[in-house]
Specification:
The protein has helices at 11-24, 75-78, 104-117, 130-141, 165-178, 186-200, 228-237, 253-256, 258-270; strands spanning 37-42, 45-52, 56-61, 82-87, 123-128, 146-152, 216-221, 241-246. By secondary structure, it is of the alpha/beta class. The protein has an eight-stranded mixed sheet with strand order 1-2-4-3-5-6-7-8, sandwiched between helices. Helix 2 links the parallel strand 3 and strand 4. Helix 3 crosses helix 4 (130-141). The protein is globular, with a radius of gyration of 17 Å.
């Protein structure tokens, strides 16, 4: 069972992007690099991380059903001036979680706990899709942990206003088709758990965004799975925020427009916030 957010970017295309990025950067396979990898005991599980570069810490948080390998086109750029911390989220990649449920709040607390055990007071954060939601949750729940954040492809609630109607209908079909299936393997149970994460969550009220005090760059594609008006709502709810709607882009802004994405996000991190 594949999480539905992967249905709109074919597996072959996505893998091609990742492989291309890896081959251009000394064949590093992000997410499977023993030289950079380490497990940390965080809140009852072992979170798998890989660290690259030096400088101010920058945490990368991937999307539903993904892993840190999703950032193969971004890590090499940012590792030139930051200490990049790539992490497999709970129940994803090499970060195994045998519990039967999952929440964005739980995952945000994981990332705060990870920074603690790494003895990092605060970090820049880049989050994509579910990782973008996690970036927002981290800034709301642990504001002192986030210096600045860039969130792309995030939604606040799981309905046809927070997701494009076509995608929402596909999620409904997936839920109805599989809700009564008896799951036996650990993989099927985990896949269903992370599907339910997006089916039932997040449930963030607009007013809660006021808790985010750090400068934030809110990003979405003009053909994203997240409706542009919803992305605008997120931007409007954060007091110190910029908005970037990427032209000719779907959900994978940081893959489809990797060079522009890397530069604009880096500039945002480096320059003082100046709300116009």
């Amino acid at each position: 069972m594949m999480p539905l957010k992967t249905l709109f970017v074919t597996a072959a295309l996505f893998i091609a992007f990742v492989q291309m990025g890896c081959s251009q950067e000394k064949a590093i396979t992000y997410g499977n690099n023993a030289a950079a990898g380490k497990y940390y005991d965080v809140r009852g599980i072992k979170l798998y991380t890989e660290t690259y570069g030096s400088g101010k810490p920058l945490l990368f948080i991937h999307g539903n059903g993904g892993s840190m390998g999703s950032f193969a086109n971004n890590i090499p750029y940012f590792a030139k001036k930051y200490k990049v911390i790539a992490v497999d989220s709970r129940a994803h990649g090499k970060s195994v979680d045998m519990a039967d449920s999952l929440s964005f709040e739980q995952m945000a607390d994981d990332f705060a706990g990870l920074l603690d055990v790494m003895h990092i007071d605060s970090a820049y954060v880049i989050g994509w899709s579910d990782g973008g939601i996690n970036a927002l949750e981290l800034a709301m729940r642990h504001p002192k942990k986030v210096i600045k954040l860039a969130s792309t492809g995030a939604n606040l609630w799981p309905d046809s206003t927070g997701l494009i109607p076509q995608y929402w209908k596909e999620e409904q079909k997936q839920f109805e088709k599989n809700k009564n299936i008896v799951l036996r393997s650990a993989k099927d149970k985990n896949d269903w758990k992370i599907f339910l994460l997006d089916w039932l969550q997040p449930n963030i009220k607009l007013a809660e965004l006021k808790k985010i005090q750090c400068p934030s760059l809110i990003i979405g594609g003009d053909h994203d799975l997240i409706p542009v008006p919803h992305t605008v709502q997120i931007y409007q709810g954060i007091s110190k925020a910029y908005l970037w709607i990427v032209p000719n882009s779907g959900h994978g802004t940081l893959v489809e427009h990797k060079d522009e994405f890397n530069k604009i996000v880096d500039d945002f991190f480096q320059q003082p916030f100046n709300k116009r």
